[in-house]
Write a structure and sequence with these properties.
Elements: E1 4-13, E2 23-31, E3 34-42, H1 46-65, H2 70-80, E4 92-100, E5 104-110, E6 116-119, E7 122-123, E8 129-133, E9 136-144, E10 150-154, H3 173-183, H4 190-204, E11 213-222, E12 225-230, H5 239-248, E13 252-256, H6 258-268, E14 273-274, E15 287-288, E16 294-296, H7 299-312, H8 319-322, H9 328-339, E17 342-347, H10 364-380, E18 384-389
Length: 390
């Protein structure tokens, strides 16, 4: 096993006027840095397309994870999908990206726009072999991967963007390649690149998409650890153990909370230097301790991080809020959402007397709920999260 892993991020927009999306993405983590990602596009739009794409992606990902053959997957889909009463066929296109040990990709593509591969910000062509299975022509590829590579899959709503509106013949695949090469930034996460491309598609549609559109990006990156500590331990006798375990972990270190940062400074025998600049009037200022990457206030800051995390999992609209700002919450977001693949939480369960004031909207249970919800969001982002309670 190497130190490479996958960062997977996708976003969809519905056809204008439809409540359900006819595209669906399913991901299975197989362990050992291996993942199966399936993007399916059901025929038509609305409820029927949603059912077709959901069944297709779920069947393929589950069967492939069980090491079933592609022929078995295709025949099972044909036998399972409900037949459209109008067209008389059961139909869903699909793209399969099977990442093996973070270093090799197996691409299997049927009737979706072909995956775009970016290496160092430039398009890379790859070999394809066609195979007819169950009357369907399917293209298969095997690609050696390296750190920083990005694989961008899409439904056909992407290449139809702008038809009869801003563009006469839609946004061709080569146009999308040009756009991606122009917008590329090596620091982009998979979700960020998917968001940028999907937003451009939506703009070409005049914010009234003529088709369901989905972008799914897989980025190959090295593992990176971030450690976050919030709250002092319930027992004062556990302070040294908590600090020793926290600072003994490799990676970056974030300390949240006034009491917690005081204990960290005492453990490191370093002074705390509070920064009085308010980069955001809603977020308390940060501080500095030599040996700690970031020191912030606790509950108010984490509450803002949770808001951004929940949005990140939805339309990622707040990306421009936290991607460059210097307040504590934005810095935590960049470290957890973009930098980290593995996150270790050190959560102290001491009750802060100041938070028990009935005139304040904060109490111990709220703090614990914020932390637990944030952990849940990070796990949905694909982060490997471990939690240590004290």
């Amino acid at each position: 096993m190497n130190n490479l892993c996958t960062d997977i991020g996708y976003r969809s927009i519905n056809k204008y006027g439809e409540e359900l999306c006819g595209d669906h993405v399913d991901c299975i983590d197989q362990g050992n840095n291996s993942d199966i990602v399936v993007l399916a596009d059901g025929m038509g739009s609305g409820v029927k397309a949603c059912i077709l794409s959901t069944l297709t992606s779920k069947i393929i990902s589950t069967m492939m994870a069980s090491e079933m053959s592609l022929a078995d997957c295709v025949s099972t889909i044909a036998a399972t999908l409900p037949v459209c009463s109008q067209r008389g066929v059961a139909y869903s296109t699909f793209t399969i990206m099977h990442i093996l040990d973070g270093s090799e990709a197996e691409l299997i593509q049927f009737d979706n726009p072909h995956v775009i591969m970016l290496r160092e910000g430039k398009n890379v062509e790859y070999d394809e072999a066609s195979e007819v299975i169950g009357g369907k022509t399917i293209y298969k590829s095997r690609i050696r991967l390296q750190e920083g590579d990005m694989l961008v899959a899409m439904s056909d709503g992407a290449i139809h963007a702008g038809v009869e509106m801003t563009l006469n013949f839609g946004w061709l695949r080569e146009n999308i390649i040009d756009f991606l090469e122009t917008m590329y930034d090596a620091e982009f996460t998979a979700k960020t690149l998917s968001t940028i491309l999907l937003d451009e598609c939506n703009k070409l549609y005049g914010n009234k998409p003529g088709d369901d559109t989905t972008i799914c990006t897989v980025k190959i990156r090295s593992r990176s650890v971030v450690n976050l500590m919030i709250g002092p331990p319930r027992s004062p006798d556990d302070v040294n153990q908590m600090m020793s375990l926290f600072f003994g972990r490799q990676g970056k270190h974030i300390v949240c909370g006034g009491t917690t940062s005081t204990l960290a400074a005492e453990y490191l025998d370093k002074p705390i230097e509070t920064k009085l600049e308010y980069f955001d009037p809603e977020i308390p200022p940060i501080a500095e301790i030599d040996g700690v990457d970031l020191v912030t206030e606790g509950v108010i800051t984490i509450n803002k991080v949770l808001t951004y995390a929940q949005n990140y999992l939805e339309d990622n609209e707040f990306y421009t809020h936290w991607s460059y700002k210097k307040d504590g919450a934005s810095r935590i977001c960049r470290m957890l959402f973009e930098d980290a693949t593995d996150i270790n939480f050190f959560v102290g369960r001491a009750v802060n007397p100041a938070h028990q004031n009935p005139n304040l909207p904060i109490n111990f249970s709220i703090k614990m709920r914020l932390v637990e919800e944030l952990i849940g969001c990070l796990e949905k982002m694909g982060k490997k999260v471990k939690v240590n309670y004290f």
